[in-house]
Each structure stands twice: as structure tokens, then as C-alpha cells.
Amino acid sequence: MKKEKLVYEGKAKKIWSTEDPDLYISEFKDDLTAFNGEKKSSEAGKGALNNKISTALFQYLQQKGIPSHFVEMLDDNHMLHKKADVILIEVIVRNIATGSLSRNLGIEDGKILPFTLVEFDYKNDELGDPKLNDQHCLILELVKEKDELDYIRFMARRINTLLKDFYAKRNLTLVDFKLEFGRDSNDNIILIDELSPDNFRLWDSESGEKMDKDRFREGLGGLKVAYEEVLKRILEEK
Questions:
Q1: Which residues neighbour 31 within 8 Å (Cβ) at sequence distance 6 or greater?
Q2: Which of 28, 34, 165, 216 is the least crowded, having the fewest Cβ atoms under 10 Å away?
């Protein structure tokens, strides 16, 4: 399967069409961005690490019955996946308060939440990805009906349950993460995008060390080393 036409380029990936109209190729880039693109850099090998981590997690979730766009990893930086129409909702799943949740609501950083919090952000860079409620989603016609929002929430919580346990066995704490969903050719809602430390906050369960893109956001350094350690633990048999 070969790349043909560049369909879309985002902060972390390029999306290419192929000779099969139902299949696309994602090319994972080494670029790093934070704060809505205000902070930018690049880390050689980061894209390949995210592709490998995403591949392992998509395969794990598919084994657990989570439908996704994933087909196969083609090489270090390229993933073959189903074409999907993106639902312009970023689904934020939080287990522990940190980042914007602590800043905006004054919740103590590191506080374990009494239940899994699922939030919706509007996937719109020009507007700064504002928060959405169900009525906003319906007014903007991001979904067809409220039942679809309920399904997305259910899937987000199910994925969280699966990945919390998966990571806990590898001495990693899943703090929070971002998911994206889309519609396949049969109009089914499926998990899309990537599953990597670019989108996941992961802390070492013993030391509390940050093993994700916060290392870039906060200028901690050692991002690639942290991503390599995450991949190593993910690939360990448990």
C-alpha cells in the first residue's frame, strides 16, 4: 500500500490517501507542539515511537472489542487505517486532577477524582478548542442525536477502564488522555487518531515521574527517553 495524495496535515501527523478509497495512511511526524501551537519543537524519532505505541494499544483494544480505524503498522512512521469522517469532538478522560482542570477549577493538582470525568472540547484550533456541553454538540451538528454522545461517553469510559488496568500492570498511572472518534464507511462510530504519550498523561506509579508530553510542555527534557520507556513497558508480557 502506497501513499498517493496528501489529504490533511496536522500538528503530529500527515494523512495520505491510497489506491483503496476506504484506506488511508497516517505518517507520524517528529514535530512537537503545545499550548495550541504556541510552543513548537521537534524530537528525532518521536513519530516512530508514537506509531509503535499507538499500534500496540490499538491492537490491545481491538482484542477487547473496541472498534477502531487501525489496520496495521506499515513501517516505523506509517500506519494503515480505515478512512473515517472525523467527529469534531475531542473527548477528554480524566482520572486525576492536573493541568487545565486544576488551573480552571482550583482542584488540587494530583487529587484522585471520585469518578472518571469525561469532557468534550470542540476540535477547532481557531477557536482554541473550547469546552462543549451536549446542547452545544447538537446545535453545532457534531453528532446526529444525543444517543451518539452517550455512546461516545460509554466507549471513553470503557477504554479508560481497559487502559488503566493495562498501564497499572506496567507500573504506569493513567492520569488523563484525549480520544477522537469518527464514522467509518458504514456510519459506525469508531476510535481513530492515535494513542500515544502526546495525548496521554502517564506517571510512573512509584516515582511520580512524568512519562508524556508534559516533559516538553514544562521544559523538563528527556521526552524521547520517557517515550522509549513507555514503549518498552507496553511491549512487556504481563
A1: 11, 12, 40, 41, 42, 47
A2: 165
CATH of 85-221, one of 3.30.565.10, 3.40.50.11270, 3.40.50.2300, 3.30.470.20: 3.30.470.20
Region 44-52: what's the mean pLDDT? 97
| CA nearest neighbour of 104 among 115, 92, 114 | 92
3-class SS at 147? helix
Distance in angstroms (rounded) separating the CA atoms of residues 190 and 182: 6
More confident residue, 238 or 176: 176
Max Cα–Cα distance, the chain, nearest Å: 51
**Residue range 132-152: mean pLDDT, rounded:** 98
Q: Which three cell numbers stand for residue 14?
A: 500527515
- For every residue of 183-211, DSSP letters joined together read E-TT--EEEES--STTTEEEEETTT--B-
Residue type, 9: E
| Helix (H) / strand (E) containing 14 | strand 13-17
* The residue to which cell 481557531 is assigned: 126
pLDDT in tens, 154-181: 999 999 999 999 999 999 999 999 999 9
Q: What is the pTM of this model?
A: 0.95
Residue 238 reports pLDDT greater than 70: no
Q: Exposed, middle or buried: residue 193 (CB in 10 Å: 0-12, 13-18, 19+)?
A: buried
Query: Quick one: cell of 214?
Result: 508534559
